[in-house]
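Known limitations

Structure tokens in this collection are predictions and should be treated as such. Users comparing against experimental data should check residue numbering before alignment. To illustrate the layout, the record for 6-phospho-beta-glucosidase is reproduced below. The input appears on top and the generated tokens appear beneath it.
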Amino acid sequence: MSEKQGLKIAIIGSGSTYTPELIDGFIRLRETLPVRQFMFMDIDDRKRTIVGELCIRMLQEEKMDSEAILTADLDEAVRDADYVITQIRVGKLPARILDETIPPKYGLLGQETTGIGGFMKAQRTIPVMCHIADRVKELAPEAFIINFTNPSGIITEAVMKHGFKRIIGLCNVPINMTSSVREQIPNGELTMDYVGLNHLSWIYHIEQDGRDITKEAIRQGVKSERMNNIPPSDLDREITAVAGAVYSPYLEYYYDREHKKKHNLDSGKCRGEECMEIEEQLLALYSEKTLCRKPELLNKRGGHRYSEVAVNLVHDLYNNTGNVNIVNVRNGATLDFLEPDDVVEVACAIDRDGAHPLPLRKIDNTHIKTMMETVKEYERQTVNAGLAGDRTAALRAMVVHPLMGDYTTSQKCLDEMLNANRAYLPQYKF
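Generated tokens:
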């Protein structure tokens, strides 16, 4: 922000039904985040209009004096922006449904961000996110991209490898994990050490009033709360002892793989189909001209505390606070068992220059390190495939991933998924 008397916030993918929660967060921090202009950008005219008009009513209801512009023009949205929030879904929910329904035909897990479904989502998304980064670099070179687009860590790494460094990846899992642990250990001053990749993370050390209570917490069954978008698991508390840490709910796809695959087959409809129904219900609610706040139904989409994570990060960047946020950033020298250019999900101090990883307590847990090393190699190859349309890199990603592995099966599933998504894969040659 310069002499413009306020921030310009560009929301790319503003037709997302999560956007009202984001605006609710900006309203909440209006005293320390002076937003001059919101740009609501989406290529879907219907959703951009319905969601955008609700957001305008929310701003008016709270008498927040910010200009709000709805546009389909990316350049108009990002020009001279201070912060660009990306929350896009290339192919929309029908593409997600393919990600979740094709893999089970081959005995593989169909999931939005994990395994081959997450791989394909990344392939569709990487070219578009790199284009957005190019436009931001030209039209708003001082802006930060705040990326919520999934799979967040992979997308953030791809954009960095493409050459755009002013990007920070976000997820609501870390704040949900740390908050749920605090609720289960309510007394005293609690500190936690968190490490991982996006949707592959652990709280591996817990102290209460300076005393190490990690083993005690594990024995007592302290765990992360279940997320609405992840089906219930049959895992007992011994799995926490096996992991030696409080684990992300997404790790249930690894620790309870067969149960999750069975749920895929038996549920009747996939999560993407459920989300499509919820989305239409939300859009119908949003269309009501009397609605001036986010409805409770929004919590069913699985994005709990999304606005808190996003708006707090923008607040800390703008106000140069030094506050700690768990975000997806370049590893550098933070984890010596990974490469410097790998993107990791760790605690960072936030100031006007970006996110700076904090030193981590030594990780002696070989389970965590081995899983991170393995899945990070999958992520590297996924990025290589997405940037270059490299089928060999795609297969390398699949054979190393714990949820895939079998070459012949992965090859057959990949062929069908590439063909089903070819309209969104300009980097591949068909």
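For this record: The two ends are 45 Å apart (CA to CA). The mean pLDDT is 95. Please report discrepancies through the issue tracker.
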